[in-house]
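### Sample
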Amino acid sequence: MSDAKFLSLEKLTLSYGKNVAVPEMDLDIGKGELVALLGPSGCGKTTTMRAIAGLLTPSSGSIRLDGVDITRTPANKRPVGLVFQSYALFPHLNVYENVAFGLRLMGVKGNDLDTRVKQGLKTVGLEKFTTRKPAELSGGQQQRVSLARSMVMEPKVLLLDEPLSNLDARLRLEMRTELQRVQKESGVTMIFVTHDQVEALAMADRIIVMKDGLIEQIGTPEQIYNHPVSDFVADFVGFENVFALHNGMLKTGEHEIDLHGTVPAHTRGLAWRPGTITLGSGPYRGKVRGTSFAGGTREYLLDTPLGQIKAECDASLPVHPFGGEVAFDLNVKKAAPLARFGGL
Ligand SMILES: Nc1ncnc2c1ncn2[C@@H]1O[C@H](COP(=O)(O)OP(=O)(O)OP(=O)(O)O)[C@@H](O)[C@H]1O
């Protein structure tokens, strides 16, 4: 077993009755990686996590962890931790007892128990809160208790289901950094589920983008952000202007225009972020149908022969007035070439 295949899913098929939610998934996760499972609602993220945790029996395929086949190992015998979205803390137990709970079940006691619980609480920065009940903690602190409770069990893999979704915006930012710190310091392999691309890009070493039960793309945040392989991923990571390319024509629905410039062979589509569209010069014409000031930049919505286009330029540049015509360019060199489009 190499470290790159620390957790390995092979041809894993996951079904609910006759409905296949995840068909034949192949996936390798390295030791010590922080991985995000990213995708829209219903794409199979939770189903995949449940299978790794042992809460769902695969219809076929296998799961190996640290060289051991755990496909049929019961959930409570797997060295896999699970942190729920809802934290699932015991309300009547204080912080210390919540963290000690699983260890006590395993028969850990005395000094050993005390040392491990205190170490767990220290890891998440909650040493001073041992006697508080969950209701006396903020959402972020409850999340930390939940994390400590899983970490003290020393799992080989820790799964986190939408770990930040119940937190307000400020706490979410704080917990992003905190989760990363705990993961890097402990070296525990972690997989977290999210439908928030910003969260995945900010935290993960590697992102797995899922769509309809299939892996659409795997890559580092930089690869996913800069080099999406398909229109689906490009849309998901905020390209906003995503067009099919067919016989040298850019297309959206009924609309099409000539593309100026050459693209790599087998390009099925092109995607531009709003900031990479040139406004004020270029071979194309559009009509300004919306403009909004966004601090350092100004955003434009244009009606064009290619449908609606979103552009963004420096706010210090002269404003293109609402209703007026404006020239624009779609610079091929600034576009992301898409190898797949519309599922093809
Ligand atoms: N208990 C179930 N019984 C039947 N079908 C289910 C069940 N749970 C999930 N599904 C179906 O399996 C597919 C994948 O669902 P899953 O919950 O894994 O998606 P998800 O990506 O985690 O979505 P979300 O972000 O909304 O949690 C969906 O089509 C869903 O309807």
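The pocket of adenosine-5'-triphosphate is lined by residues 16, 19, 21, 39, 41-47, 195 (CB under 6 Å). This sample (ABC transporter ATP-binding protein) is used throughout the tutorial notebook.
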